[in-house]
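Retro notes (design track)

What went well: tokenization of the new backbones is finally stable.
What didn't: we kept losing track of which sequence belonged to which structure.
Fix going forward: every design gets posted as structure first, then sequence, in one message. First example under the new rule, 323 residues:
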């Protein structure tokens, strides 16, 4: 299985379309942060928007075909760029979504706004390994056949979402949410094929020689992978592999392996019939004691406590270490 399919198998992502915004100038959107386990998204299907840089640098212009993901779940501001006081927006409820409109003029912004929900502790994994802010350009279908094909697929998916919002037909909400979930996978696929993929999993996946190591760690996390074994898979020296991982991912292969193992362990511990010792063996620990130490260090609670919190529905109160 490819690493991205394996990631979504381990960490299911549910998408939801919240609003379709139809704004004329002057307009302004000021949102976030939302719930801790949510990743907001915006897809521009008409007009353009200026996205403020939280660091104070020049705003980024979002055009038709651009999709913004915010894995860091920050407060974010978009506007028309004119600097005037925005016109008040009003919401109009349809059968399957809400339309937000104002009485502004000029070129109108047409924006799909939604979010992805990732169950704890997997939301923290994605925040650690994806950039806080990710913009992909589905409208720019150049840069090679693979990238162009993915961009075209993503553009077609967003067009289908737009059609569903306009028709408001039977089953529309289910369709829009399912398409939102598929959008998340396509955005990550497209971003990983960008020559300037942001640091993290996407940069690692976009490096052809490092991709075999990434796939190996996701597909066989219980294996006691050594640096020489991974380097051999990638046809490079141990030193080069370690340096490339640090440069592209910001972490070592061992760090990524531990995080994958802990994500799997969190899933396995939800099953009441499997013992902690069996979970330890499943995720690659020869000793139950070693697994318990690693899990508590990573999650902040023991496996037994995690299991009880899952049963009580309190997983959202766990704060994983290193997030």
């Amino acid at each position: 299985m490819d690493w991205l399919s394996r990631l979504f198998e381990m960490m299911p992502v549910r998408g939801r379309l919240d609003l379709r915004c139809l704004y004329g100038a002057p307009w302004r959107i000021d949102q976030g942060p939302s719930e801790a386990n949510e990743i907001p998204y915006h897809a521009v299907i008409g007009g353009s928007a200026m996205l403020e840089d939280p660091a104070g640098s020049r705003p980024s212009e979002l055009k038709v075909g651009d999709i913004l993901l915010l894995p860091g779940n920050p407060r974010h501001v978009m506007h028309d760029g004119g600097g005037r006081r925005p016109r008040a927006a009003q919401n109009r409820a349809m059968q399957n979504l809400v339309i937000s409109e104002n009485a502004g003029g000029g070129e109108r912004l047409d924006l799909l706004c939604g979010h992805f929900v990732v169950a704890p502790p997997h939301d923290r994994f994605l925040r650690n390994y994806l950039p806080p802010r990710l913009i992909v350009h589905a409208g720019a279908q150049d840069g090679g056949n693979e990238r162009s094909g993915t961009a075209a697929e993503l553009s077609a998916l967003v067009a289908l979402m737009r059609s569903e919002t306009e028709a408001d037909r039977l089953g529309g909400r289910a369709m829009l949410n399912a398409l939102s979930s598929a959008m998340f996978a396509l955005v990550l696929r497209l971003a990983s094929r960008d020559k300037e993929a942001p640091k993290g999993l996407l940069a690692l996946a976009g490096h052809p020689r490092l991709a075999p190591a990434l796939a190996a760690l996701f597909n066989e996390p219980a294996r006691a992978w050594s640096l020489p074994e991974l380097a051999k898979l990638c046809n490079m020296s141990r030193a080069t592999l370690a340096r490339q991982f640090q440069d592209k991912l910001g972490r070592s292969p061992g760090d990524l392996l531990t995080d994958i193992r802990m994500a799997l362990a969190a899933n396995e511990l939800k099953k009441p019939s499997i013992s902690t010792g069996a979970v330890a063996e499943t995720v690659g620990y020869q000793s139950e004691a070693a697994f318990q130490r690693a899990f508590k260090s990573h999650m902040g609670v023991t496996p037994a406590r995690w299991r009880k919190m899952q049963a009580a529905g309190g997983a959202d109160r766990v704060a994983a270490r290193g997030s």
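Added context from the reviewer: Confidence is low (pLDDT under 50) at residues 319-323.
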